[in-house]
Amino acid sequence: MLKLYLFSTLGCFLGWIRFIPLIAQYKWLSGLFYFIAIITLGWCCLEITNLMNEATTDNDATKILLSYFGYLFSLTILLYFLIKKYKKQ
């Protein structure tokens, strides 16, 4: 599960860092970051599905799903405000 959180963090970071003006001016670099972020987060969703299938009860599967998407939501909000603050500077 830790590996999954690390890859999700990497995917979200690459997805948001492409909005920084220094990187956004290079369309190919921004597109590459976006592509890597989509592939990484897609792989993480497949791994979450596998973890949910291996869960012994429905409650365990629900806890896994909610904890993962709760983590992604809070990470996305944090990165949104960090990038917004960085763009103003």
- Please tally the β strands and state the result: 0
Could you give the order of the helices and strands?
HHHH
* β-sheet strand percentage: under 5%
Structural class: mainly alpha
Helix content class: over 70%
Number of helical segments?
4
Q: Specify the biggest β-sheet.
A: none
- Overall mean confidence score, pLDDT: 88
**Structural shape:** elongated
Q: Radius of gyration over alpha carbons?
A: 15 Å
Uncertain runs: none
Give the oligomeric state of the chains in this entry, treating copies of one chain as homo and distinct chains as hetero: single chain
CA-to-CA gap between the ends? Answer: 36 Å
Structure description:
With about 90 residues, this protein is mainly α. Helix content is about 90%, strand content about 0%. It has helices at about 1-15, 20-25, 25-55, 60-89. Helix 1 (about 1-15) runs antiparallel to helix 3. The longest helix has about 30 residues, at about 60-89. It is elongated, with a radius of gyration of 15 Å.
